[in-house]
Structure formats: C-alpha cells, structure tokens
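::Encoded backbone::
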Amino acid sequence: MAGGYDDRDGHIWMDGKMVPWRDANVHILTHAMHYASSVFEGERAYNGKIFKSREHSQRLKASAEMIDFEIPYTVEELCAAKAEVLAASGLSDAYVRPIAWRGAGEDMGVASQKNPVRVAIAAWEWGAYYGDAKMKGAKLDISKWKRPSPETIPCHAKAAGLYMICTMSKHAAEAKGCSDAMMFDHRGYVAEATGANIFFVKNGEVHTPDPDCFLNGITRQTVIGMLRDKGITVHERHIMPEELEGFEQCWLTGTAAEVTPVGQIGDYTFEVGAMTRDIADAYEKLVRA
C-alpha cells in the first residue's frame, strides 16, 4: 500500500459493513474529534491469523467502559469483523486497527450520551516499527512528559486522548535523531516508551516497571510468561532512574514494536545481548506458530 492513509485502495469495516477505503469518513462534528472520546487497539496478523485477537477485543470493550461508553458489538462479533477485514485486505501479515468512538449526534459539548457509538476496523501492511533497530538496538530520548497519576486519567484504557503526550515526546525524540522516548511516571519511576513497554536485564534476571499507572500491554504479558517458562526470574517493580546505569540489556515490547532491542536511552548504553535476541526470536516463532 502506498500514499496517505486516507487515499488507498481496499475496504474498511464500519458499523457492521465493508466500506470502500476512501469513503470511510466521519463528520467534522464527531464528538471524538473534539473531546477524545475514542478507544482503539493495535493488532498484528501473522500468516493470516491475528495474534491474540480475542484478548485485544476484550481490551477494546474494557477501554470503552473505562471512558464511559459501551461498544455495541460482542467480543465474538469484533473478532469475526477483524477476520473479515484481514481476508478482504489480501494480506497474510498485516497490522489491524479497530477503533470505537462517540460519533456526531444531538450532543456537541462535553456531554455526549445522545450520540451514537461508532466502530471501524482497518488493516494494512506495516513492517518493523523501529526500522533496523531490531539488529542494532533503538536509540531512545528521555521525555520531559510523565505518565499521569491514576487519579487523573483512566490509565489502563487504550484511549486516544492519553497518547497526546506520547506524540509530543516522540516528535521531540525524532528531532534529536532518536527512534522513541522513554517516559517516567508521575512519581519519577521508569514507566514505558511512548507506545511500548520496557524491560531491562541485570545479572541474568529481568526487571520491568510495575504497570500501576500505564497500560499493561498484551505483548508485555506474553513476554513475561515466556521468560518465566524459560526459568528466568522476572521482577515487576518500581525502577528508579539511577538504576538505568546498572542494567546490561534493554528491550521494548508492543504489538507494533514486537520485541525490539534498545541500545541507548539518553546517556545510558545497553548491549544487544543473548537474552534480548533469544526472547525476540522466541516471540517471532510464537506469533507465527
């Protein structure tokens, strides 16, 4: 696929039917555009099958409930719609994007209970999220923005509005020649990258931030399970900034990122070591099994 995301061949599933790609539009007074009342998922298909499709559909519905609306489709219906979109795309390996939002209706203010909930699903070809970083390790900036307190946002929802500080952080990182940025949380602990969870290795053991104020990624949970199945100790805990100097290896996880090694965060450097490569290879085999 080439060209802008609004000008492509193909079809997008919208509200129960397939719509030509270029016709999959919403009104300018859509509530989500003005007030961020939108939730979404990022999923990958491998060899024609979406990895953990059901878990993603469950999280989409849970995210909607966290921001006070209900998706008018069951988990089973969402999974079937995603499979339909994937088949229509003609792709065996693809990125799949379901999104649900409050649309245009009788309300056009902060309140929007009279407006319909809309749902759409698109799929497209998307390669490595961080380009060649899988070989040499991604370079990360350290963001000036922090993940907010759970008292201020629905931090466990995959909600569109929560990504604005991530967008700003990634733009700032790219301006410095970095692939992404690592963020601290509101207390100053290491949190995550702008769209991926983070792992560190020290003395043969793995350390990863406790996701008590950010998204506990599906890929994150998968990788933790894989590490423990291999007998590797995983510590889910608060990590202080000064600990970065003592870690030997680092990687990111996410549906888009998959398992991506990190070679540098700010002034701290990391080896793209054996454990990192092993878990990246094991994850690749798992999703294509």
